Amino acid sequence: xxxxxxxxxxxxxxxxxxxxxxxxxxxxxxxxxxxxxxxxxxxxxxxxxxxxxxxxxxxxxxxxxxxxxxxxxxxxxxxxxxxxxxxxxxxxxxxxxxxxxxxxxxxxxxxxxxxxxxxxxxxxxxxxxxxxxxxxxxxxxxxxxxxxxxxxxxxxxxxxxxxxxxxxxxxxxxxxxxxxxxxxxxxxxxxxxxxxxxxxxxxxxxxxxxxxxxxxxxxxxxxxxxxxxxxxxxxxxxxxxxxxxxxxxxxxxxxxxxx
Length: 259
Known about the structure:
34% of the residues lie in helices and 25% in strands. The protein has 259 residues and is of the alpha/beta class.
């Protein structure tokens, strides 16, 4: 397995005592898969992603990427957040180069690599623009290019399309599927959007409410991932099955709030 999440638990200290957010999480992901994790507010989705990214440490258990234990942040894990996190005073090109600059990559190489990935996400013509000159979807493409430019082994996405309007969100769904199919990168995304999870992923892991535990694994087999697939019976059946599971585990009325 490429990503191994073994018996992860996470507790936080509160005024009322220990609060268990994640309990005995076990997930394995193959190289090149697109996996989504869904669950209610408070199920620990974002907390789990932070453990995988190395931004926080689990209370118990271990996470390994390509056999190497996760001990902290690393360029082998690219991260995309919901709110873009672009530097408003830097151009699109400079934002994309930023991680490479921190790594000490030469000016020439980071310009070439950033230009390549801006072309991959379709933003070469906007390289000199500032973030405030871009639409929401374009900003998220810059954030994705910035994550990819360090050539990570896995792309971690924390509800990356939650702040977008429905039309832009659907366009971004098609964009990220095309990007995944072309680059073959492993992607792990968390979402509260049922249709998004079904449309994007090979597999879906359903978390229960706090403490978050893996209650169900769904395998999604869709012949194609174009927008029209959402009108097909197989897509609607997957969507309905996932909704039933979420209701079953106390996740009816999902919202985008994070732990």
